[in-house]
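R.M. (postdoc): so does anyone remember the format we settled on? I'll just put the C-alpha cells first.
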C-alpha cells in the first residue's frame, strides 16, 4: 500500500504518527504514492499521486480562518457574522487569528472595544449564544466520531466552583439537533474542499445549527485515532484496486430516481394554482410538503416521483407516463411551468436520487463539476441566480431512507423530455464514472461566486474540458446521442424557456 502521510510537526500528535507508522511519513514533498494525505502541510504539488486527501489549495484556504468564514458566507452556511469592532459593537465578540500553523492562539473572547484594539486578532466575529456544542470529525464526507459538550459531574457545591466541561462521544443520530448539526457540518467541510477534518458546530438559542469553526488538522480524540487510520488505509486499498467491472455490467450499478417539481398557473390571472386542490400528497404524482407561508393548507409545488431505474431512458419514460396521468387530473385550462423560478419567491428543483452507491467527496465533486455546471449553462441565468439565493447550492444533498441520497443542486429539468433525458443520462454517466472525473473548479472561490450568480461566460471554456473528460468514459457512447440537446443549448449560448407550458414539449396539450 502506497500511502504517504505528509504532516506539519506543530499540528500532528505523536499518537497519529504511530497509527500511520506503516506508511510513508514525511514533512516534505514525496513521489511514488497512490494516496497523499496532507495533515496540515500544504507543501509540494498535488499532481504526484492518484488521489490527494485535503488538497493543497483547499488546505491553504482552511488554514486561513478569515477565508473559511468568507467561503461559508458565500455558500450561505450559518456561521458567526463578521464584526468590525467599535465602541458601540455588541460585545462580547470573538477575536480570531488567521494562521493555524504556528500552533498558537486561534481565538479569544473580546469583552470591550479597548480589548479589541490591543488583542492583535486578525478579524472579529459575533459571539453566538448556543445551547449545545459539538465536535464532528469527518472522513470522506462521513462523520466517524461525534462529541458533545457536557458538564463534568462533581460533588462540589456549585456555588464554590466554576463548572467545567468536557466533550463526550455520542452517536451522530442521537437526536434531531445532533442530526441537524451533522448535516450542516457535512456541507461546510465539503464546500471548503476538505476530505477530512473537524467541524465545531452548535445549536443556537433559536434551535438552528451553526458552524463555529473548521479544523483541517485537528487533535483527534485518542479513541478515534485508530478508527481514522483504518478508514484512510481502507480508502487507499480501494483506490489501488483496479476497476474490473465489465462494460456489460457497468450500467447496472447506480440506481437512479428523481422527484422533479413543477408549478401550475392560471393563464388569465397569472397567479399560482395549487396542485393540492387536484392531487394527493403521496404517490407517483403528488405535491411537495412545502406549504405556502407554512400554513399547512396551500401547497404550490407539484412533484413527479417515478420508481427508480438503472436506465435513465426508462426513467424518462416513467416520468412521461406520470405526466400523462396528471393531464387527466388537472383542469386543461391551467398551464404547467418548470425551470428554476416559475414565479417570484417560488424556487423549484430537479432533484435526482442515487442508490447502490455511497455518497463521498469525489462523487459529490464530480456531480458539482460535471453535472451542475452543464445544467447551470442551460438554465435561465436571471432566474437561476435568484433561485440559488435559497436553493440549489453546490454540494446540496439529502440522505434518503433507502440508504442512498438526493442531489438537489439542479433546477427543474422538466422543461422538455429532451432536457430531462439529457440531464438524467448525464447524471448516470457522472455517478457511474466519477472515479475518472477528477476536475474540481470550485476550489477557486471566484468560480463559486460565478456559479451562484450564473455568470456563464466564466464556464464556457471549462465546459469544453468537462466534455472531453466525459467523452473518455466507458459509458459515454451509450448515451451520447441523448446529450445533444444539452450540448446544443450550451454551444449556442441559449437556455431553456421557463415561461412555456411544459405540456407542449411533452405532447400533453389537450386537442382543440
Amino acid at each position: 500500500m502506497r500511502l504517504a502521510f505528509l504532516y506539519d510537526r506543530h499540528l500532528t500528535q505523536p499518537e497519529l504518527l504511530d497509527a500511520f507508522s506503516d506508511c510513508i511519513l514525511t514533512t516534505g514533498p514525496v513521489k511514488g504514492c497512490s494516496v497523499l494525505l496532507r495533515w496540515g502541510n500544504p507543501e509540494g504539488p498535488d499532481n504526484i499521486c492518484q488521489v490527494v486527501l485535503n488538497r493543497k489549495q483547499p488546505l491553504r484556504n482552511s488554514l486561513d480562518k478569515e477565508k473559511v468564514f468568507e467561503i461559508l458566507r458565500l455558500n450561505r452556511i450559518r456561521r458567526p457574522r463578521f464584526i468590525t469592532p467599535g465602541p458601540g459593537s455588541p460585545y462580547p465578540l470573538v477575536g480570531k487569528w488567521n494562521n493555524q500553523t504556528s500552533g498558537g492562539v486561534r481565538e479569544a473572547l473580546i469583552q470591550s472595544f479597548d480589548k479589541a484594539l490591543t488583542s492583535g486578532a486578525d478579524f472579529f466575529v459575533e459571539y453566538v449564544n448556543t445551547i449545545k456544542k459539538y465536535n464532528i470529525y469527518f472522513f470522506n464526507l462521513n462523520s466517524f466520531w461525534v462529541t458533545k459538550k457536557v458538564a463534568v459531574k462533581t460533588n462540589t457545591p456549585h456555588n464554590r466552583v466554576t463548572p467545567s466541561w468536557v466533550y463526550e462521544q455520542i452517536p451522530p443520530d442521537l437526536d434531531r439537533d445532533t442530526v441537524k448539526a451533522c448535516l450542516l457540518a457535512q456541507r461546510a467541510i465539503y464546500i471548503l474542499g476538505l476530505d477530512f477534518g473537524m467541524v465545531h458546530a452548535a445549536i443556537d438559542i433559536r434551535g438552528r445549527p451553526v458552524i463555529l469553526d473548521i479544523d483541517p488538522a485537528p487533535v483527534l480524540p485518542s479513541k478515534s485515532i485508530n478508527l481514522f487510520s483504518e478508514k484512510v488505509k481502507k480508502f487507499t486499498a480501494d483506490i489501488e484496486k483496479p476497476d474490473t467491472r465489465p462494460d456489460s455490467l457497468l450500467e447496472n450499478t447506480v440506481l437512479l430516481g428523481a422527484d422533479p417539481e413543477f408549478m401550475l398557473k392560471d393563464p388569465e390571472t397569472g397567479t399560482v394554482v395549487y396542485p393540492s386542490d387536484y392531487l394527493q400528497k403521496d404517490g407517483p404524482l403528488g405535491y411537495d410538503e412545502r406549504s405556502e407561508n407554512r400554513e399547512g393548507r396551500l401547497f404550490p409545488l407539484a412533484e413527479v416521483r417515478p420508481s427508480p431505474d438503472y436506465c435513465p431512458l426508462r426513467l424518462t419514460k416513467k416520468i412521461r407516463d406520470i405526466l400523462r396521468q396528471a393531464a387527466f387530473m388537472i383542469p386543461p385550462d391551467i398551464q404547467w411551468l418548470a425551470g428554476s423560478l416559475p414565479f417570484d419567491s417560488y424556487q423549484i428543483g430537479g432533484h435526482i436520487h442515487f442508490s447502490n452507491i455511497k455518497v463521498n467527496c469525489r462523487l459529490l465533486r464530480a456531480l458539482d463539476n460535471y453535472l451542475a455546471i452543464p445544467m447551470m449553462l442551460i438554465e435561465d441565468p436571471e432566474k437561476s441566480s435568484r433561485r440559488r439565493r435559497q436553493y440549489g447550492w453546490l454540494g446540496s444533498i439529502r440522505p434518503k431512507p433507502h440508504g442512498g441520497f438526493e442531489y438537489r443542486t439542479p433546477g427543474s429539468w422538466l422543461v422538455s423530455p429532451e432536457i430531462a433525458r439529457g440531464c438524467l443520462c448525464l447524471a448516470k454517466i457522472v455517478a457511474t464514472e466519477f472515479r475518472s472525473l477528477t476536475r474540481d473548479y470550485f476550489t477557486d472561490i471566484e468560480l463559486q461566486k460565478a456559479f451562484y450568480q450564473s455568470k456563464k461566460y466564466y464556464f464556457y471554456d471549462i465546459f469544453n474540458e468537462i466534455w472531453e473528460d466525459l467523452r473518455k468514459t466507458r459509458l459515454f457512447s451509450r448515451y451520447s446521442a441523448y446529450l445533444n440537446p444539452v450540448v446544443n443549448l450550451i454551444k449556442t449560448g441559449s437556455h431553456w424557456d421557463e415561461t412555456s407550458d411544459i405540456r407542449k414539449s411533452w405532447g400533453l396539450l389537450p386537442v382543440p
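R.M.: ...and that's the designed sequence above, right after the C-alpha cells. Also worth knowing: Residues 58 and 443 are 6 Å apart (CA to CA). The first strand starts at residue 3 and ends at 7.
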